[in-house]
Input
Amino acid sequence: MAEASANSPAVLRGRHDFPEISGRIGSIVLGGRLPRHFWTAFLLCFLLVLLLLYSITYLIAVGVGGLGINMPVVWGTMISNFVWWIGIGHAGTLISAVLLLLRQPWRASINRFAEAMTLFAVAMAGLFPILHLGRPWFFYWLLPLPNVHMHWPQWRSPLVWDFAAIATYATVSLLFWYMGLLPDLAVLRDRARSRPAQLFYGILALGWRGSAYHWARYQVVYFLLAALATPLVVSVHSIVSLDFTFAITPGYHSTIFPPYFVAGALLSGFAMVLTIAIPLRWAFSVKDLITLRHMDNAAKLMIAAGMVVAYGYLSEAFFAWYSGEPYERTMMAQRALGPYAPLFWIMLSLNCGVLQLLWFRRIRRNMPLLFAIAVAINVGMWIERYIIVVTGPSRDYLPSAWGEQSLAWLDFGILFGSIGTFFALVFLFIRILPAITIFEVEELAEEEGKIR
Amino acid sequence: MSLYGLMAVFAGPEALIAAARGMRERGYRRMDAFSPFPMKDLEGILEIPKTRLPWAVLAGGIAGAALVYALIWYSVEVDYPINVGGRPLHSWPPFVIIAFEAGILGAAFAGFLGVLAANGLPRYHHPVFNAESFSYARGGKFYLLIETADPKYRKGVTRGQLTRLGAEMVEEVEA
Output
């Protein structure tokens, strides 16, 4: 399986030795000398972090009226941002858990940052439903806590399921990620020269010493966590989609939603993996560890997920027509021809049109072009989430109740602020923790006979 | 200072496996191997017992799901029953969704905490760290430790055997 077919690039390029692998990956963190453009990019992200903080403060002070939402479309960018970010997180879990279970060797050098991407994306996603509450400081009412009101959460509400799903997903992703980090933290602990770094990595490594007895248990449990994360990731986005389908609003009430949301999550997630990986391998010259094979495979998975998404679009439109319901049919016609039509067609041309370029190997292996496609898909998927959220309520049952929402500066402030915060966290992660799994790359090099 | 064992350093994974097998054939039992990445072959050679942690994970999953389901059942049937149009209080399908998530959470915690507990981590210090040569800093050294508690252990003899099995260096490890 590890053998690549004749014309597909190898998972690892060149020959390596163990000191070199651990040294190169570890020195990104411990060397402390990062290229100037790294810090320039971080500064730009940090400005967006400030924008996010300002926007959130404004939102809390003024209220959700500061957003573009308006009756009858009271779900807006907060909900579409939430769905979009959660989806981005899912590709990380897919790479780290599903590819581990399928024993795909190409997972080894990209799983760590994919998992980090999951964590940060979930952290961003978690903000939005809470901000959308209007009174965010009461979000803990979703938890079954003993309280003076004597109330319980409404267990039959998808919003409460959502809370359970996201909280579980964030926690399990964190445990899985930290467990995978332990052996690498031990490497950093031993490599670190300065006392603070030794203390920092030493404490985080929890005294890991690589004993054969430890590895035996570690591997069993790591696989089990992967096996748990796999159904979890499917359940999380399915539950997110139930937030919509449990309403009888035209355009929301559809059984295709759970699989269609999961496929959309993978499409946008792999687009984000490429958006991060392409600059990462260029900036830190790890092109022989993260090879064209990884990029190629991620692009192939994008097209597979993208075709399922396209099927979802078709199926939605078909069943709107086949239902014979005038409300469903009107909603679908209005989605394509009504006030949100430009967005709808942009979405289709990006997610179904531009995506088809990935069928060509030459395009998949052209990094600047692949990066541009990945960014386009990210944009397309955000628009898709927005379209789903707003077009349904805007064309409700009674034409007299029809209406649109706008987009205010606050919508963009929070969206771009969250994107900046996400990338700022990714930058800090690359600075503080090994972005490529040292022990798995060494193991892979050993298995593939790529050791000098 | 008492002696904890002898630590032999090997350059590569094959050398470590060969040495572990050799020492095993010479009758040593209290051994441990240390490697920067997991090595499946060592489990057979060192006769590492099959871990029972999967049962802990299963138990954690069942406990998580059962506890949360019981909590929900208690809240709708006992603590706060609301009759909404005569619908059943115990409407299980939505409850299963939350119980499923709680089951995954319980299983993941059981696995993570279980593997740490079984491995005796976090641990502030361990005698192997006393060995000068024991470090993952250079990424790829492989270590075999023979404890002094092993009945076959004889200082000079064991050291000689390890050297003959290809150890780059043999070091005494203080307890």
User: Anything to note?
Assistant: Chain A touches chain B through 62 residues (CB under 8 Å). Chain A has one domain: 12-135+154-447. The two ends of chain A are 22 Å apart (CA to CA).
